[in-house]
Amino acid sequence: MKQDKPNRTIAPEFREITDIPFLLPEKRELSNGIPLYTIHAGTEEVCKIDFIFDAGMWYEQHELNALLANLMLNEGTNTLSASNLAGIFDFHGAYLQLSTDQHHAYLSVITLNRHLSKIIETLASIIHESTFPQHEFESLIIKKKNRFLVEAEKVKVISQKRFTEVLFGKEHPYALTAWPNDYDKINLDDLKNFARTHYKAERCRILASGIIRPELYSLLEKHFGSNDWKSPSLLPESEFEIHPSSRHFHLFEKKEALQSAIRVGCHAVNKLHPDFQGLLVLNTILGGYFGSRLMSNIREDKGYTYGIYSMIISLKKAGYFFIASEVGKDSCQAALDEIQFELKRLRTEPVPTDELNTVRSYMLGEMLREFDGPFAQAASFRALLEYDLNNDFYTNLIHTIKEITSEQLMELSNRYFKEENIYEVVAGSK
């Protein structure tokens, strides 16, 4: 039967987003107490497993220990070389990713369910039996340092690193203070000790998503449910004081640079604070999407940059806000002035209804995308785990997006974006 062609002259029907389907994870524990969260969804026989360890930068004694200890896990075990490990994942069509952030280290694998037994067995070898071989360590240091040398010369990297130092102080783990010469100070024994101390059962959580088969539970119990990889005692939780700079403007000169990188921002709050969700709306208006005020003013109207954006960063122990861009060095001061102008507008002028409604629609649409599929659902849930939050956070966020008023946004702007709260960091020339 011949089907009628769609009429392209008629716009699709507009539908308001009223609800976003959240999948609640099922929680159980392995015999040794490791929490296991599962999100059963999808149509393909694929599973993603995230091992989440309290082994991020917050816990390291020396720069880069957390990052490099995580990467060295995959460089050889008691029974498998680095090439053997790579071959197993490639042959079985699986993908392994290792990463770290301020508080956590991750081992994340995506695999077909029919290969689950082999992949989990291999993961167990990586987590329990890594040998940290000397040759692979030396090769990794050379590779990472060379890449770091290239990145460290970029003004956007300099501005990012210096901005965190200005906000938190050089000794704080939230300050990105590693530099190329830190790679020369890395000691292999330190990495081994870091891994042996922090990759332990009581510092681990597991999140699985996709099509969850019953054998997943028995395999995880078999390889990770015993008590023999628990520590004899709990590690004390370290605390660090924040020491922000007393100066609110910082220039890190790089005279040969053709552009200057700008970071402007201030301390804020994390996801646990009642103001956080309103700040997400405020940030979107200012610089959180392509139609934002910063983009319209500084890119479209003034032509000072190809791109400018802002973000609210939530960390376990703090939060902060920043605006980032790269501009021609002759336009740097003018761009800073326009940024301050836009921040002042938020403090002194109500957001027009049309603009606020556009932002509401954009944010709800983005939330739909962020929960599209089991892996996306798992990533959204993972973002709440360290705060002991659940999906009520997202339900409340939807309410905030729909109901927050221009007056409330002005109140938030005056609470957080006061001129005396703002730091400006420029890398390049001004």
The number of strands is: 11
Overall 3D geometry? globular
| Helix-strand category | alpha+beta
Our count of helices gives 14
Distance between the termini: 68 Å
Q: How helical, in percent, are the residues?
A: 40-55%
CATH class of the largest domain: Alpha Beta
| Helix/strand order, N-terminal first | EEEHHEEHHHHEHEEHHEEHHHHHE
Q: What count of domains describes the coordinates? A: 2
CATH architecture of the largest domain: 2-Layer Sandwich
Description of the molecule:
By secondary structure, the chain is of the alpha+beta class. The protein has 2 domains: 26-224, Cytochrome Bc1 Complex, Chain A, domain 1; 249-428, Metalloenzyme, LuxS/M16 peptidase-like (Cytochrome Bc1 Complex, Chain A, domain 1), CATH 3.30.830. The chain is built from 14 helices and 11 strands. The chain has helices at 65-72, 82-91, 116-129, 134-152, 155-168, 188-198, 214-224, 276-287, 293-301, 332-348, 353-370, 374-385, 392-403, 406-416, and strands at residues 26-29, 35-40, 46-53, 95-100, 105-112, 204-210, 249-253, 259-267, 308-314, 319-328, 423-428. The strands form 2 sheets. The protein has a 6-stranded mixed beta sheet, with helices on both faces. The chain has a 5-stranded mixed beta sheet with strand order 7-11-8-10-9, with helices on both faces. A hairpin with a 5-residue loop joins β1 (26-29) and β2 (35-40). α3 (116-129) runs parallel beside α7 (214-224), α8 packs across α14 and α9 (293-301) packs antiparallel against α10. It is globular. The model has no long low-confidence stretch (mean pLDDT 94).
